[in-house]
Specification:
The protein has 20 helices and 15 strands. It is an alpha+beta fold and 562 residues long. Strands 1-2-6-7-8-9-5-4-3 form a nine-stranded mixed sheet. Strands 10-13 form a two-stranded parallel sheet. Strands 11-12 form a two-stranded antiparallel sheet.
Length: 562
């Protein structure tokens, strides 16, 4: 198994030892940028301003663009794509429509998580031509690992639009210097950023058996985007030049909208009309002074990094001269509204594209979004109807995604069914509470109740049960569910006595379309099981069933690769 993380680190070290060979920096040099080493994290970056730290928020003092954006142009969420597409069309790129977020052309994922997913595996491998070359695309993506952070940190989402800048070229036509000059033009002309406000970071990227250098671009603590120059095949463990080299630039459409407006949170910039309507319907009125003080610290509550969130709430409250519960009373209702805004947009797009909430695969995550939203509505007693919020989103997004309006009736029917199931589950929770009263409810029990019966901790609290809800509850329950599904799908067939040095050469990583191959039988067990020195049979893994075929006229399948 290739250790992509180790190869990425090794390549980054090699690239940074000879930056002008591996990184496209000629445009930066011509513009007066100089290479520097961050005094805090030690990474190399390029800046034309005299500075000792890179653009990472941990090194540069957080998000200093809030309330003080250096951008010369303001653009809302829709205007961001319109401005980007217009500029890149003049630079020779073809804007194309988004792909469905339900990734039915792939068997390794339920949803698109980055714009490059649109072109994997067949365009990236060179087997088919891209729809245009070069191209830009406003690809809606779904990622569920930050569900618990949505609303709290001011920047996390489950659904977002990754604007992709892509090119697929043979080595003699591959032009990273040109690609970087185009993104530099976007930053300076498209967003109106003074070049003194921009930092480019040297990095590397590895994934899916590919490797390449990358350049991240920052301003005032915010990473606006990242260009990856995918150039090497590393499936064998040794980098080899790709026949088709790929430009993979991803920029969240949310980032320029937030950055150019400098709003307190990203949500106000990316859901402007929806947030305003949610404020009006619920009567929630954020206290500007409290939020202005809280937001510089909100990132500390990231559940992936915080060890004790309750202590952090107390520390932040103390810095603001407030009581911890008083601070929560200000922040949590607003963060709940932001979560509902995020979740309903994700659901609108996913359901419009044919995905359905369920207890299986990606549908499980969609059901989590529905139920988390309904939990918030119930907790605060808000008169909110999720299909109506979806309609607000569709109206706002119509200039970019007109197809969403056409699916609203179907989306409403699906969400109404989910609401009825949610109400039925609430009734079941009353009986559960009666049996649990007087007993300690462990975290494991909370996970079990949610995963097996759909009963959320909020339902238990609503019925008067005292429970401690982990801050990363939804992340952990999704991981638990995924692990249980994988265990159910993967059954260890048999084990045989083989030495650690007796390994089977794996052929399907290099050519997944390989249907015939020659191999030597190295062992025979029980006159029916054989071990080969090389194989193209794929075993059951990652939710994909094993291959079935023939070996010298006898039916054969793979139970485990060595």
């Amino acid at each position: 198994m290739v250790d992509e993380k180790a190869m990425k680190a090794e390549f980054r070290k090699k690239a940074q030892s000879d930056p002008e060979r591996y990184y496209p920096v000629q445009t930066l040099i011509e513009e007066g940028f100089q290479r520097r080493k961050c005094a805090r994290c030690g990474n190399y970056f390029w800046s034309c301003a005299d500075r000792t730290v890179c653009g990472e928020p941990e090194c540069s003092g957080g998000y200093t663009f809030i309330g003080d954006s250096p951008a010369g142009k303001k653009m809302d969420f829709i205007q961001t794509w319109q401005a980007f597409a217009g500029l890149f069309e003049r630079l020779g790129y073809t804007p194309i429509p988004r792909y469905p977020v339900a990734a039915r052309w792939r068997d390794d994922t339920d949803f698109v998580q980055a714009s490059i997913y649109d072109f994997q595996p067949y365009v990236v491998s060179g087997e088919i031509d891209p729809p245009a070359n070069p191209l830009v695309v406003p690809q809606f993506c779904l990622r569920f690992n930050d569900t618990d952070n949505v609303g709290i940190t001011g920047r996390h989402n489950t659904g977002f639009v990754m604007i992709g800048q892509h090119a697929f070229e043979p080595p003699d036509r591959y032009a990273p210097e040109e690609y970087l000059s185009h993104i530099y033009t976007w930053l300076v002309e498209g967003m109106g950023l003074p070049k003194e406000e921009i930092q480019f970071h040297e990095d590397s990227w590895a994934g899916g058996g590919n490797l390449g250098p990358s350049m991240e671009f920052f301003s005032r603590g915010l990473e606006i985007g990242n260009q990856v120059y995918m150039q090497y095949d590393i499936k064998s463990g040794t980098p080899k030049e790709l026949n088709i080299k790929v430009l993979d630039m991803g920029m969240g459409q949310e980032r320029p909208a937030w950055f150019t407006h400098g709003t307190s949170t990203s949500y106000e910039a990316i859901f402007p009309t929806v947030v305003e309507k949610l404020y009006k319907v619920t009567g929630v009125d954020p206290d500007p002074e409290v939020f202005q003080g809280f937001l510089p610290y909100s990132g500390l509550l990231n559940v992936d990094e915080a060890e004790d969130t309750e202590k952090l709430w107390g520390d932040i409250a103390a810095k603001l001269g407030m009581d911890k519960e008083e601070l929560k009373d200000h922040i949590l209702p607003v963060s709940a509204l932001y979560s509902i805004a995020d979740h309903t947009r994700s659901l609108l797009v996913a359901l419009s594209d044919g995905a359905l909430p369920s207890n299986v695969g990606g549908g499980y995550n969609l059901r989590v979004l529905v139920r988390r939203s309904l939990d918030f509505v119930d907790r605060y007693g808000w008169d909110l109807y999720l299909p109506e919020i979806c309609r607000w989103h569709a109206d706002y997004l119509k200039p970019q995604y007109p197809e969403l309006v056409e699916s609203l009736d179907n989306v409403e029917r699906i969400l109404d069914v989910e609401r009825r199931k949610y109400e039925e589950t609430k009734k079941k929770s009353r009986g559960i509470v009666a049996r649990l009263k007087g007993k300690k409810v462990t975290t494991e029990k909370l996970f079990e109740l949610y995963d097996s019966k759909g009963i959320s901790p909020e339902m238990l609290k609503k019925e008067g049960l005292e429970v401690d809800i982990p801050p990363d509850f939804y992340q952990r329950v999704s991981q638990l569910h995924e692990r249980q599904v994988q265990e159910a799908q993967t059954h260890k067939f048999r084990e045989f006595p083989l030495g650690p040095e007796e390994k089977t050469e794996i052929l399907y990583y290099d050519d997944y379309l390989l249907l015939e191959f020659e191999a030597r039988v190295t062992h025979v067990f029980e006159d029916r099981y054989v071990v080969l020195d090389r194989t193209a049979f794929y075993p059951t893994s990652g939710g994909q069933l094993s291959d079935i075929g023939e070996m010298e006229g006898c039916a054969a399948s793979s139970s485990r690769g060595r």
